[in-house]
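Appendix B, Record 12. Input sequence as logged:
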Amino acid sequence: MEPAIKNDRHFTYADYCEWDDSERWELIDGVAYAMSPAPQWAHQGISSNIQGQLYIYLQGKPCRVFCAPFDVRLNPDAGDDTVVQPDILVICDKSKLSGTGCVGAPDMVIEILSPSTAEQDMIVKLGKYMEAGVREYWIVAPGTRSVRVCTLNNGKYDSVDYLDAGAIPVGILEGCVIDFNKVFEE
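Logged structural output:
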């Protein structure tokens, strides 16, 4: 299913800030895409389980974990026309934190696939995150209990797929491992 588009006008972050807070949108290259009002409970459970493990690991460390809704302005210096709301993100440079989100590329982004957003997450956002310099991008597929880990290497993503995931190391956080046996618990 294709996400709804606001209209064929080119939008910027300034436009985005003027929109009604009761509606959720993401901007990608100036095109506004509607976001579903709220994810299903299984999606929320997976998100909470991942975020919880990251939160515990990051206690006392300089990086912080955040979850949607959280604005990420991927190209603030070049048009400021891409604002996404990843399910989970890790930011290690506190100077990127501003107002309601992050200005620039987070260090890590995790998207949990939903039928309405899978294509956006796997193709469009993958390209935008790579272009912006997100060092590690995880795509979690609840239906297949799999995870694709994309690690930035010389400006391109190297990908590894984990099926029936188990424990997956977080490349940007030395010693951090996410236990997907716990993540997929109901």
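Residues 73 and 83 are 5 Å apart (CA to CA).
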